[in-house]
Design goal:
By secondary structure, the protein is of the alpha/beta class. The chain has ten helices and nine strands.
Length: 224
């Protein structure tokens, strides 16, 4: 389960040590940690990371299969988390120490910055290969964050980008050696930890207004 600790003005949110899929319990844990960050009166910054092989493997497909009748509500909860991170009123960086797939890669993109391990792990949107089209909100998030060329390549090919390839296409901002991913991410945002939260949150909400609106727009009701 996600855990949170503070290191000299930077909050480090550990997403977990397994695949860190977006189960309802996992989503609740991440949101509770974000609540704790926002509740602190002092300005700060956020680093998210995982342990082991995965940063996050995205949607909990097993849970979806077992709870198909709750898919719309589940997807809305996932998209609300993406919108929340996208507009978080503190500087945020994803320290991608392992694989980031699907919604896990979208979560990383929702941060202001990304630092990825250089020699291992993939950044990938596999939707085209698993026959799961992007929702309008997810597509808007990716297209807001990437150049048009990078968005086309990432969204339509299902290609797995290693750290250096991801950096070269601006999917991530920096790469680092295995033991330096989290420290590099923390040093990237620590100088920004004093930004006024109200101002920063408003700026992000304005910058990404179209993506946030799309992420928070309810899905049409299914017709039978």
């Amino acid at each position: 389960m996600p855990t949170l600790h503070e290191d000299d003005g930077v909050f480090v949110l550990d997403l977990g040590e397994d695949e860190n899929r977006f189960s309802p319990d996992w989503l609740e844990g991440v949101n509770a940690s974000l609540d704790a960050v926002v509740a602190r009166s002092a300005a700060g910054a956020l680093v998210t990371t995982g342990r082991g092989k995965f940063y996050s493997n995205g949607l909990d497909l097993e849970w979806i299969t077992e709870h198909a009748d709750q898919l719309a509500a589940y997807r809305a909860e996932v998209q609300e988390l993406l919108a929340r991170v996208l507009t978080l009123p503190v500087p945020a960086v994803a320290a991608v120490q392992g694989h980031a797939f699907g919604a896990g890669a979208m979560l990383a993109l929702a941060h202001d910055y990304r630092v990825m391990r250089a020699d291992r792990g993939f950044f990938c949107f596999p939707e085209v290969d698993i026959d799961v089209p992007f929702t309008p909100g997810m597509a808007a998030l990716i297209q807001d964050k990437l150049t048009p060329a990078a968005a086309v390549e990432a969204m339509t090919t299902g290609r797995r980008f290693g750290g250096v390839q991801a950096r070269d296409r601006d999917l991530v901002d920096q790469v680092a050696d295995e033991g330096d991913v989290v420290p590099t991410a923390a040093e990237l945002v620590r100088p920004l930890a004093g930004k006024n939260r109200d101002t920063l949150g408003t700026i992000k909400s304005t910058m990404f207004a179209s993506a946030v609106t799309a992420l928070r727009t309810p899905e049409p009701a299914a017709h039978t």
